Amino acid sequence: MGVAVWALIAYIAIIVIWNGVLKRNIGEAMLIGFAGVCLFGGTGLFDLAWAGIADALAEEVAFAALAFVFLALGVVVVLVQAAGLVAGSPALVSGAVSALGMAMTVAAGLTGLLGFAMSYLFRWKAGED
Q: Of 57, 81, 98, which one is at a domain's C-terminal end?
């Protein structure tokens, strides 16, 4: 079997052990699995890691998903606040921002950061589609 097959087996094993056996977060498991796969690159470890990150950022679906999450959270906040105004419940109005404010801030920051990284990587100019 080739190196790629062994890297895939190692990736899956790391995820299963980290998430299934140690009961840790799946996001942590995938990041550690990514680092484990990069170790198969030997001396080209950092080049392989950078190529993987750059290719992942190049996917339009990543930016679209983050933008969707940000916009969906914004719609939920507006609808909950509108319901609170109609019901005359100030706790509902302020609670919507308290509950979803942090998630919206993170989603907006990640969307902006990803857009910035993509514009840097692909040398986008202002006004281009």
A: 57
Q: What is the pTM of this model?
A: 0.51
Taking the C-alpha atoms of residue 76 and residue 73, their distance in angstroms, rounded to an integer, is 5
- Cα dihedral 55, 58, 59, 61 sign: positive
Task: Return the percentage of the chain with pLDDT > 90, whole number.
Answer: 12
Residues in the chain: 129
Which residue among 57, 84, 99 closes a domain? 57
Q: What is the pLDDT of residues 37-51, one digit of tens each?
A: 989 888 888 888 888
Closest listed residue to residue 107, CA positions, set 59, 69, 50: 69
Question: 26 and 14 share a domain?
Answer: yes
